[in-house]
Structures are given as structure tokens and as C-alpha cells.
Write a structure and sequence with these properties.
This protein has one helix at about 20-35, and strands at about 1-5, 10, 40, 50, 50. It is α+β, with helices and mostly antiparallel strands. Strand 1 and strand 2 form a beta hairpin.
Length: about 60
């Protein structure tokens, strides 16, 4: 997921071999990040920057 310099989600990407699982993870990530203002990343000078955040997902095969 990419966060802009104002703390808004720019986009959500998934990677993996199982497209069905990727779709479900992306849908879940969209739900859990909806209307959430993130703290933007900062560079060494203290300026706000676009940053990438990784959200871990686990699933249990029942």
C-alpha cells in the first residue's frame, strides 16, 4: 500500500501466485484502510514523503 505525503492511501497492491487470494486480500485491505488518515513518512530532512506500508495478512485453511 502506498501512502501519500498527506497520510492518504494512494493505492493497494497485492503480489502472489493465487489471484483469488490476492483479490480477497486487496478487498480486505481496502475495507480496513477506508477513511483512515495515516501518519506520513518523512525523509532525513523531516519532509513528508510518499511511503510504502506493508500490511501482513494471515489466513487459516479450514
Amino acid at each position: 500500500m502506498k501512502i501519500d505525503d498527506n497520510g492518504n492511501v494512494l493505492n493497494i497492491s497485492t503480489y502472489g501466485k493465487d489471484e483469488t487470494f490476492n483479490s480477497e486480500v486487496k478487498a480486505a485491505a481496502i475495507k480496513v484502510t477506508d477513511k483512515i488518515k495515516w501518519t506520513p513518512g518523512k525523509n532525513k530532512s523531516g519532509e513528508r514523503v510518499i511511503d510504502i506500508v506493508k500490511l501482513p495478512f494471515r489466513y487459516k485453511n479450514l
